Amino acid sequence: MLRFLISLVADSFAFLLILRFILQIYKADYNHPLILLLVRATNPILSIARMVLPNKMKYDYACILAALCLFLIKYTLILLLIFKIISPLSLFLYIGLDTLKAVLNVYVYALIIYAITSWMRGNNRQQTFENYRSPYSLVLLIANSCLSKIKPLRFKNFDLRVLILVFVGFMLINICNNFILI
For 9, 97, 112, 161, which has the most beta carbons within 10 A of its beta carbon? Predict the structure, then answer.
């Protein structure tokens, strides 16, 4: 039970940190109330991470550093809880896989929100998601190269190949996690 709670808290907060990093890359409007809530929730950890990695670059890599440190703390606590020792290479592999899983989670939730908003009448979906087309175009480019043999799967102007690629990514990450099982 304690292992589940540690994983839940660490994964949720790392999701928020990576979401903040991705929103910064795609120049989100930081005057939106939900994004302000995200900024306020992640600032305590980011202020500590910015002492190590100051924000003098184009992107705020302190978000990624904080997420990596959070995953390191998560696995350290879990390993202490179950009295097990693993190699540092396995630990860093777990941290990398968890980071990749958090990025894929952000994309899955963004695709779900995008699909739900496309069902609503009279919405300004094109204006709302105008700034966020480039992340989807990147994933769609990867999907086109990986899934070129499959003809486009569409549901009301929504290409499902991207969702298939993300779910295949999740399955590969889970397979890798099972081979290095803690």
Answer: 161
